[in-house]
Amino acid sequence: MPTATPNDGIGQRIASIRSARRMTQAGLAQTANVSLSMLRKVEQGTRAPSDGVLDAIAAALGIDPSRLLGGATHLDGRVHDTIPLLRQVIAAYDLPEDGPVRPAHQLRAAVTEAVQWRLDAQYIRLSSTLPALMAELIRALNGSSDFNRANTVPLLVAIYRAADAVAYKYGYHDLSARLVELMRSTSHLIEDPLLAASTAYVRTEIFFAAQAYQAGLRAIEMEIDRLPAEGQRQHLGVLGSLHMRAAVIAARAANPDAAMRHLAEARQLGDLVAEAIYYGTAFGPDSVRIHEVSVAVSLGDRYLQLALDAGTNWAPPPKMPAERRSGYYVELARAQLWAGLKEAAFESLKTARRIAPQHTREHPWVQADTETLLRLYRASSESLVGFAEWVGAI
């Protein structure tokens, strides 16, 4: 079954992105391993690509298939289809079936690619690889000697986290909680306090989902207390990310003093390290600035201007993970909407969509804020209606 109809704009998007990549049709066809005649028909809009062809073209362009589908919704089904497979893998995590295990360097490369897809919010590409890769890493861990266990555990924790990102974003909070617990138990198989601390960052998702903000704040502050405020760059990066997370959950708990205290700690640590990925989490001065907006929006009322000021004459640099940049514009849009800046809010939502379509569409605030925009606009524009349809607001 084809994934799209010929007239849904996929061909035009392929041609535009190909042109931006400075690729010829022949070059793209060769890289994607599809026939040149088929690619021409797809770009002309006279032929709809199958799932396999669409995936191959997207991979050749270095993007997620969702970038090509625009307003189409059917690819969500491909993400949802992986959830039962993930459940099957983790149900038997301590009883893995026999099977092949690639050499360590190949596994490391596969995990590195998957982590990058998570950071870039490429959930379709990510979800298609997770079940098999997770099962392979579980086999590797169960067959590991004490010597290479130290190498295998961080890889499996990273894949559990990648699977959690998909589960959490798509509303499978029970599965997300299970994956977080597996992250925690697996990280404790080796002596790496930073790996354990990084799982505490992810664990706060459980408290966000349950709106148990006070408990979440206590949990992450306990982890912060276990780490001294000194050490090498990786140590400072992990500690800083915990303070960022603590600031946001404190704000959700309506505790501005704790939120500002943790935000100040994060700023100080951010000044000591470069913006980078530390144990799977982006941290640095730019990440702290993004979290300033998140904290201000969560606190609301008299803190709203802080969010608007933080978003004035600044934008997250393109080198930052797409998921984080997209989230920044979603939260900025909420601040702008509350301030009555409806046009600016819609522009921010569209920017979030351009950066990370799947992340924007699955964000819990986007649909509600789009519905509010529809009510505020007396005569809704065609672009707003189209956005609302895409996000499922109408």
Can you put this structure into words, describing what you see?
The structure is a single chain. With 394 residues, the chain is mainly α. Among the domains are: 1-72, lambda repressor-like DNA-binding domains (434 Repressor (Amino-terminal Domain)); 74-191, no CATH class; 322-394, no CATH class. Helix content is 72%, strand content 2%. Strands 1-2 form a two-stranded antiparallel sheet. A hairpin with a 2-residue loop joins strand 1 (276-278) and strand 2. The longest helix has 24 residues, at 146-169. It is globular, with a radius of gyration of 22 Å. The protein starts with 9 loop residues before the first helix and ends with a helix.
Question: Could you provide a short overview of the structure?
Answer:
This protein has 394 residues and is mostly helical. Among the domains are: 1-72, 434 Repressor (Amino-terminal Domain); 74-191, no CATH class; 322-394, no CATH class.
